Amino acid sequence: MPDGAELTFRADYFDILAERRIIYGFEMSLGGTRISASLATIELLPEAGRTRMRFTEQLAFLGTAEAMAARIAGTETGFDRLVEILTRETASVH
């Protein structure tokens, strides 16, 4: 983190069905204080010879509104990076 605070992520995986679904629960802490707890599902759906990923998250947020906005922005940034990597890595396949 820019201010030097430690951000931690701890997860437990409840269900993994190869090439179909991952269900996991996780909590995030900032500077030793829990800021959120979530249950997330990733579904991998066949679509026109490709795969669509659907991410669903039930979030209990325990911090300030500003921290929640940063948390959501961080998740969006992570998915943007995933799209960039997958686009680059699969460009030569298609």
UniProtKB/TrEMBL annotation:
Gene3D superfamilies: 3.30.530.20
Domain Activator of Hsp90 ATPase homologue 1/2-like C-terminal: 2-86
Name of the protein described by the UniProt record: Activator of Hsp90 ATPase homologue 1/2-like C-terminal domain-containing protein
Pfam families: AHSA1 (PF08327)
Native organism: Aminobacter aminovorans
Organism superkingdom: Bacteria
Coiled coil: none
Alphabetical list of InterPro entries matching this protein: ASHA1/2-like_C, START-like_dom_sf
UniProt record similarity statement: Belongs to the AHA1 family.
Lineage: Bacteria, Pseudomonadati, Pseudomonadota, Alphaproteobacteria, Hyphomicrobiales
